[in-house]
Every structure is written in C-alpha cells, then in structure tokens.
C-alpha cells in the first residue's frame, strides 16, 4: 500500500489536516509539503532503511518529517530536546543515526554532536550547517510515494532503562496502525475532530496523534509545547474536540483555564503518562469534563488500556479494559496469572507491541518472552475486568509526564568527587505528580553544599531529571541483603 498521507490526500484533499497558529493546511497541501521535503531529503542522501535523528521542537516541519521519512522508508529517531549533549550523543551513536536534522533553535546543540554523525541538516536557513532549503528546485522534483511495508520500522523511540541507559523501542508502521485502530474503537472518531497536540512530538504520545489523525482524516491542532494560555485560546477559538495531556498539564489547566475547559467543545480529555489522582479526576468531573484515563507505553505504541469518559465518571481511578486487539494479563514472578484483585506485573501482547529494543538483545529478551511484553509495571484487575495501575515500574519517577529512572541520576551524582553514596527516588508532588529527591552520603572530611551538587548535575542531566530535594546523611539504611531501603529514605525526606 502507499503511505497513509497519499491515500488521505486522494480521498479528502480539501479537509483540514494541520493547524499551527493562524495557519492551516488541507490534506492536499500537506501532501505537497511532504513530497517536496521527501525529495530534498533524497537529494541529501536519505535512503531506504536509513536512521535519521530529528532534534527540534514542535513545528510544522517536524510533522512533515514524520511523513516524509516514512515515504522514503527511512527510520525516524526523534530526540528529546531537553537532554544534554552527553545524553544525546549516546542516543545518536546507539541508534546508528548518521544524519541529524535540526532547526534554528536546536542548531547550537546539534553542532555539538557533529562528531557523531556524517551530516547535519537544518530545516531553516543557516550559515553554520547545511540547510534543506538550499537544495535546488531542479534537483528536488516532487517525490513519488512508493509502497509502504507495514512491517517496516517506522521509528526508534527512546524510553528510560533500568540499567541507567535509555532503550530504543523499534516501532513498526503496523504497531501504529493497530494502535490507531484500537484507539478509535474505544474513543470513537468524528469527521470534525480536531486533536490538540501540545505534547512533544519526540514522545510516542505526540507522534501517535499525527499518525492517527492522518488515518482518521481529521485535523491536528499543533502547538509548540504546553502553555496554558495558548491551550485556553485553542479550546475557545479553534474548535478542539480532543486533547492528550499528562496529569501535570491537566492540573495546570484546571487551575488557570477552568472556564475554557468547561465551555469547550471537548468530547474527550485523554490523560496518560502517569497515574491520574482521584482528586484530579474528581475536579474534572465537577466541570463535566469528559475524561478518559489511560495506561500506555512507548513499547506498545502508546495506549494499552483506556477507560472511556462514561466509565470514568462511574468508577474513577482505574484505566479501563485493554483496547481491541490487545491482550493483557497480570502475572506473578513466575509468569503465572494472579487472581483477580491481586497485584502483579502487567503483561501485554498483540499487534501494537514493539519489535524490540534496537541493538539491545539482552534488554529485549528480558521483556519480550514468547510473544508477550513484560512491562515491569505493577497493577491488578478487578471483578469487572478493569485495570488499576499501582506503580509505574519498580523505582520509576514520573515527573510532569517524563520518566526518570533513579539509577541514571545516581550514576551522575556519584561522579562528583565528594559523593560517597547516593540514593534517588520520587516524592509526591501536587503539580508534577512526583519530584526527584536525592539522599547523599559525603566522603569523610569533604565539604559539599546542595547548590554545588545541583550545579554539577545540571551539566549532565536534563532539567526534569535534576533532584529538587537533596538531603545529606551519614549512612544509607540497607536491608539484610545489602539493598538500600528506599522506602525508609522516602519517609525521612517527606
């Protein structure tokens, strides 16, 4: 089959596909933009199967890159623009990305990665790096779409790893197709839908919206990041019917934009990325907001289970039943199913599950067993078959919808010459869901201040990974087996 955008442009060329600020593009216009970009990328050497890293914020060119790279049968590797040069360098190397695409905003950071790639391209005019705008029109004839193999890898999307290094989940076009189809069965579609996209496009949740709307023939209302007033304006003036948010975003909107939310045309507020508290859901219900709580993972192309708004209103707190085509069970440590109501590990299977982690066979074998994905997340299923998520992976900190593994932060803090031992964990926070906290043991006779350690960590960690609470103690409490008692330390810092 040809790629989804070509089909959509043939079927409904005049329908609005994308809105950004006060500009809009119908499907015919968007398809032409993608064809032109695909041609320029081909001239620059992008070929079938090539891994192309993309480092830029939300903008129209990011959307067109998603489609253009798929049209070229290349593999997109979206990079988190909040990461440091050290973190990005590792991902670029690990993913075998030889081409890096940036824009004016991220160009300084991209230049720092020049030694890791063969070519850096900017979607803006640039005097520092090669610009895609410089490709002569004569060379860049409109690219004719070729058949799209749904089994082909669409992207390598990085997610946090328990070893302290992120893992690149290989998602196929099939994964995205079945995820979009399953989501539509659960939440429904409307030809007039407009899905507000204020989540990062380098996250699976953001990219999924682009692909789903193309399949549904509906519109994406794109914003460059999350800003409450801009969201409020879109709700009031741009006919938004769907929005995907993490609990932190929803918390802020309820505080600053209650009238816009209450008077909007929203038919669904999809809340995921972290557990939505009962209080948060109750505040939404008080405004008659149609909230759909969801559980998903990068490795499963976003949604796994979702509670539709009518169900959430009756029984808030759970994330519903698995989506169509998705099989889910809760298992004990031996892999056997547990009884209803008993907590165990959430295990998922079906056509939305990733191919595996790129170049990380040990990590892949650990989670993919006999066609099932062992998520590492803990939860239980009640008598009605609804899933309740208890904990997002054993020690994972979810702050503002961003995943932070304590071991990654511990490794950085432990590199400070004054640090002897360190333990990192999350503490509850009304706005962020969790904040990163660190308990530090300083080497004998050495002085170390909180500010000094913060400044050190800021050089090596993205802002959302920085410890916001740092306490110093003489020794870390441990179990009889030598494991650090995170639960005891958490009680000390609260």
Write the SSE topology.
Blueprint: H1 4-11, E1 16-20, E2 23-26, H2 27-43, E3 51-55, H3 60-71, E4 75-78, H4 85-94, E5 99-102, H5 107-112, E6 119-122, E7 130-131, E8 153-159, E9 167-172, H6 173-187, E10 194-197, H7 204-216, E11 219-222, H8 228-237, E12 242-245, H9 247-256, H10 258-262, E13 268-271, H11 278-286, E14 291-297, E15 302-307, H12 309-314, E16 321-322, E17 327-331, E18 344-349, E19 356-357, H13 361-367, E20 368-369, E21 372-381, E22 387-391, E23 397-399, E24 402-404, H14 406-413, E25 419-429, E26 433-442, H15 450-458, E27 469-472, H16 486-493
Parallel strand pairs: 1-11, 3-4, 3-5, 5-6, 6-7, 10-11, 10-12, 12-13, 13-14, 26-27
Antiparallel strand pairs: 1-2, 8-9, 9-19, 14-15, 15-16, 17-18, 18-21, 20-21, 21-22, 23-24, 25-26
Percentage of residues in DSSP E strands: 25-35%
Q: How is the CATH topology of the largest domain named? A: Rossmann fold
Number of helices: 16
Q: What are the low-pLDDT stretches, counting only 5+ consecutive residues below 50?
A: none
Number of domains: 2
CATH homologous superfamily (4th level) name of the largest domain: ANL, N-terminal domain
In percent, how helical is the residue content? 25-40%
Envelope shape: globular
């Amino acid at each position: 089959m040809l790629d989804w955008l070509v089909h959509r442009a043939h079927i409904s060329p005049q329908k609005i596909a994308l809105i950004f600020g006060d500009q809009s593009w119908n499907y015919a216009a968007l398809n032409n933009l993608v064809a032109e970009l695909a041609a320029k990328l081909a001239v620059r050497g992008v070929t079938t199967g090539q891994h192309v890293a993309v480092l830029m914020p939300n903008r129209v060119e990011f959307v067109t890159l998603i489609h253009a790279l798929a049209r070229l049968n290349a593999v997109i590797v979206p990079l988190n623009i909040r990461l440091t040069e050290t973190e990005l360098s590792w991902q670029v190397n690990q993913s075998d990305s030889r081409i890096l695409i940036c824009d004016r905003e991220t160009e300084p950071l991209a230049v720092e990665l020049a030694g890791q790639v063969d070519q850096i391209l900017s979607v803006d005019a640039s005097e520092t790096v090669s610009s895609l705008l410089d490709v002569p029109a004569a060379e860049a004839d409109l690219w004719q779409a070729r058949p799209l193999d749904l089994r082909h890898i669409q992207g390598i999307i990085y997610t946090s790893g328990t070893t302290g290094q992120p893992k690149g989940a290989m998602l196929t076009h099939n994964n995205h197709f079945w995820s979009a189809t399953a989501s539509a069965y659960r939440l429904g579609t409307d030809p007039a839908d407009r899905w507000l996209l204020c989540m990062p496009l380098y996250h699976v949740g953001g990219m999924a919206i682009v692909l789903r709307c193309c399949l549904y023939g509906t519109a994406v209302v794109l914003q460059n990041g999350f800003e409450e007033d801009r969201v409020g304006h879109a709700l009031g003036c741009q006919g938004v019917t769907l929005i995907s948010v993490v609990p932190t975003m929803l918390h802020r909107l309820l505080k600053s934009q209650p009238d816009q939310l209450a008077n909007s045309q929203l038919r669904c507020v999809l809340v995921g990325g972290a557990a939505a508290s009962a209080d948060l859901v109750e505040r939404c219900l008080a405004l008659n907001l149609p909230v759909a709580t969801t559980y998903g993972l990068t490795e499963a192309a976003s949604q796994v289970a979702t509670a539709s708004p009518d169900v959430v209103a009756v029984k808030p707190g759970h994330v519903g039943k698995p989506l169509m085509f998705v099989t889910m069970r809760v298992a004990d440590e031996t892999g056997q199913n547990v009884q209803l109501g008993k907590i165990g590990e959430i295990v998922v299977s079906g056509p939305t599950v990733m191919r595996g982690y790129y170049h990380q066979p040990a990590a892949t074998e650990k989670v993919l067993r006999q066609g099932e994905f062992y998520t590492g997340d803990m939860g239980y299923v009640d008598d009605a078959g609804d899933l309740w998520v208890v904990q997002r992976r054993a020690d994972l900190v979810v702050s503002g919808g961003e995943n932070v593994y304590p071991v990654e932060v511990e490794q950085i803090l432990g590199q400070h010459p004054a640090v002897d031992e360190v333990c990192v964990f999350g503490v509850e926070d009304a706005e962020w869901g969790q904040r990163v906290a660190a308990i530090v043991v300083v080497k004998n006779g050495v002085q170390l201040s909180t500010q000094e350690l913060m400044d050190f960590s800021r050089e090596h960690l993205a802002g959302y990974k920085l410890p916001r609470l740092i306490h110093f103690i003489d020794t870390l409490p441990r179990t009889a087996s030598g494991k650090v008692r995170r639960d005891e330390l958490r009680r000390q810092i609260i």
